Amino acid sequence: MSLKFNLIAAACENMGIGYNNNLPWRLKTEMEYFTRMTTATQDPTKKNVVLMGRKTWDCIPHKYKPLANRINFVLSRNIMNLKLYKDTFHFKSLDEALAKLQDDLFKSQYEKIWVIGGSNIYKLTMDSKHFYRLYLTEIKKVYECDTFFPKIDNSLQEIKDPTVPNEEQEENGVKFQYKVYQNPQFDK
Ligand SMILES: NC(=O)c1ccc[n+]([C@@H]2O[C@H](COP(=O)([O-])OP(=O)(O)OC[C@H]3O[C@@H](n4cnc5c(N)ncnc54)[C@H](OP(=O)(O)O)[C@@H]3O)[C@@H](O)[C@H]2O)c1
């Protein structure tokens, strides 16, 4: 089966995704959704890969690093020492990460690839032929942000994924909706 990037992001009405190296909001149910989606596998012997930029890695609180029960891939052009972390790899480019993902031995260990941000990494993977789906949480509020989700190509098609709740969510008065968009190059 060909390699597919599933992007997962939460953005507010101005397409902001981050502020001061953190999330602009605190939405516990949205965080739980992120954890469930990126962790769940059909084969219990396999894990999913979560691919992220160095700044997103830096944003993860120490006690949650590496993201549990997932294989963490971190992109940075600089030297990183991640040896202390279990199931965690550093790559200097997307091509280096792709080489690992296509390695025969490694391929048998993972199920899905989740791209978890930030802005640069979303853009890089949406521009790639491997871009498959965007799982976007649309937060119906404007927050002050300094990092934004890249422009979304309007050829993307909205689809339903049975594992994604259909109904609008609400937490502490903030409304949000889970949406799924698919690259039309792939069959539904
Ligand atoms: N709302 C959401 O869903 C969501 C998701 C993720 C993150 N965020 C937020 O977004 C912000 C962080 O995102 P960001 O866009 O600023 O940074 P980022 O994409 O997480 O990380 C950028 C870094 O990744 C490395 N990098 C980027 N492109 C690369 C490439 N082609 N090859 C190798 N390395 C590459 C570089 O690291 P070096 O500088 O080390 O070389 C670069 O500085 C935070 O505020 C975070 O909370 C929000």
Automatic annotation (TrEMBL):
Catalytic activity: (6S)-5,6,7,8-tetrahydrofolate + NADP(+) = 7,8-dihydrofolate + NADPH + H(+)
Pathway: Cofactor biosynthesis; tetrahydrofolate biosynthesis; 5,6,7,8-tetrahydrofolate from 7,8-dihydrofolate: step 1/1
PROSITE patterns hit by this protein: DHFR_1, DHFR_2
Keywords in alphabetical order: NADP, One-carbon metabolism, Oxidoreductase
Enzyme class: oxidoreductase
This protein's record includes keyword Cell membrane: no
GO CC annotation: mitochondrion
Keyword Chaperone among record annotations: no
A biological process term (GO) from this entry: tetrahydrofolate biosynthetic process
Record-annotated DHFR domain positions: 4-183
Enzyme Commission identifier(s): 1.5.1.3
Gene Ontology MF terms: dihydrofolate reductase activity; NADP binding
UniProt cross-references to InterPro entries, sorted A to Z: DHFR, DHFR-like_dom_sf, DHFR_CS, DHFR_dom
Role summary: Key enzyme in folate metabolism. Catalyzes an essential reaction for de novo glycine and purine synthesis, and for DNA precursor synthesis.
PANTHER family recorded: DIHYDROFOLATE REDUCTASE (PTHR48069)
Assigned protein family: Belongs to the dihydrofolate reductase family.
Full protein name: dihydrofolate reductase
